[in-house]
Write a structure and sequence with these properties.
two-stranded antiparallel ribbon; elongated; Four Helix Bundle (Hemerythrin (Met), subunit A); single chain; 449 residues
């Protein structure tokens, strides 16, 4: 059989074990300080992955072996090859990315030593084969796609807000990245960023097999370049707004929203709001994120199993609805400013009213007071009268002031006059309504921080 040669350096080495056998008696009598001859050197976990691949080659023809040959020979993968290779990394059990805590150093890595007479060799532990397969092919896929992946990562200036706080021998001030699962940096921020990038990378791969977006692309490479870019853009927004703890964590907003289960509503809102307000994040990337929020919420809402209902009510609707209502309020205010500069004053009252209505709904959502979405629609079962009654309730509870209620009613009255009657409404009136709408928005912002 033709030898399959790959670059073993794609697999990490975190420890080395050298096993030896006793020197012959005549050599020992020469008073040498060396008592054993090394006969087996094991680099962990690299040797475990290479041993696994040797076992694949020894078993004969298989889809996995054909993929391995293509990889070794530098033959580009087809879309079907990527689909098959990604299937090999799917494993729900424990992964190995920490030092063993037992006396047996090899078993945690999935291998053992076999004695064949005087010669010892390494063998895969049968029960660990599936895990080794998944980990081995993760590293192969990282190697195949690392050029594309790092070109995407370098599109974002992560380094601009990084200052190394923990140094190891040989460290410099430059920010480094790794897609491998083993810890590579003592700097917590640097390591957390790489962890997030790796998670985004794996989610992107799995999404090709099980996500909803595969059909939108002509090829795997087009899929990967776009979808991984979106995820890295999200991480960049989180990184820029990481706060005092200096670390980041990937949030799977571009993946199944079921993966959000267990997260904190307030923290999630804070992160998304910070990204959407960040002037360093491109408008196109913000728009993609907002579209993904709507798509993800819609996917949950259409499914509506018993578990989906709990997830939607506890997290998805409170987060997505609040964020999107706030965005609509903010964007509507921007349109009012544009209308004012263009002299379209009579349209300003309508847009100011709806900006205030979106702000009110965002405040109600934040406080758990907004009705559920209708069946099959991301739309609350609320009338304008019902919302205005809830505004009155917030004023009576002291959440909002009477002045804010009066401002809302003033803009509402101006909107009715402009929309449904012949009414003189000029620049001064438009600016007055805009100021009241901006003040209302600012109040809601303060109350929902």
């Amino acid at each position: 059989m033709k030898t399959i040669q790959i670059n073993a350096a794609i697999f990490p080495t975190v420890m080395k074990i050298v096993l030896g056998k006793p020197l012959p008696q005549d050599v020992m009598e020469d008073n040498t300080e060396i008592s054993r001859i090394p006969d087996l050197t094991i680099d962990l976990p690299r040797s475990a992955y290479l041993t696994y691949l040797q076992s694949v080659a020894s078993k004969g023809t298989s889809v996995e072996l054909q993929l391995l040959k293509k990889y070794a020979e530098g033959v580009p993968f087809s879309d079907e090859d990527y689909n098959d290779a990604i299937g090999l990394i799917l494993f729900s059990g424990r992964r190995n990315n920490s030092y063993p805590s037992t006396k047996d150093l090899l078993a945690p890595f999935g291998i053992c030593i076999i004695n064949n007479g005087e010669k010892r060799s390494i063998s895969v532990i049968d029960s660990e084969e599936n895990r080794l397969r998944a980990e081995t092919w993760e590293y192969i896929l990282i190697d195949i796609l690392k050029k594309s992946a790092f070109e995407i990562i370098e599109c974002f200036n992560f380094d601009s807000t990084f200052e190394r706080t923990q140094f190891d021998d040989g460290d410099d001030d430059k920010l480094h990245y790794s897609l491998m699962s083993w810890r590579f940096s003592f700097d917590e921020a640097e390591q957390s960023l790489s962890n997030s990038l790796r998670t985004a990378f794996i989610f992107t791969l799995v999404g090709y097999c099980y996500g909803d977006n595969k059909g939108n692309y002509a090829s795997f490479q087009e899929y990967f370049d776009t979808e991984f870019y979106n995820r890295v853009a999200l991480i960049y927004g989180i990184w820029n707004n990481r706060g005092a703890n200096n670390c980041v964590q990937y949030i799977p907003l571009y993946d199944s929203f079921h993966n959000l289960n267990g997260r904190n509503k307030t923290d999630l809102i804070t992160i998304i709001r910070a990204i959407l307000d960040d002037p360093t994040v491109a408008i196109d990337e913000k728009q993609v994120l907002k579209e993904r929020l709507i798509d993800g919420a819609g996917a949950i809402h259409r499914g509506m199993s018993a578990a989906d209902v709990v997830l939607e009510q506890a997290l998805i609707k409170p987060v997505v609805n609040f964020v999107m209502l706030r965005e609509k309020a903010k964007e509507t205010l921007a349109s009012v400013r544009l209308l004012c500069t263009q002299g379209h004053y009579s349209d300003c009252a309508n847009r100011c009213y709806y900006s205030m209505m979106y702000s009110l709904k965002a405040l109600l959502e934040f406080n758990g007071l907004l009705a559920d979405w209708k069946q099959g629609e991301l739309k609350e079962s609320e009338t304008h009268n019902a919302l205005e009654n809830k505004l009155t309730m917030l004023i009576s509870q002291g959440v909002l002031t009477a002045t804010e209620g009066n401002n809302f009613n003033y803009v509402k009255d101006q909107r009715w006059k402009c929309d449904y009657s012949l009414y003189k409404f000029g620049k001064g009136e438009a600016q007055n309504c805009l100021q009241k709408a901006e003040d209302f928005y600012s109040t809601v912002e303060r109350l929902t921080m």
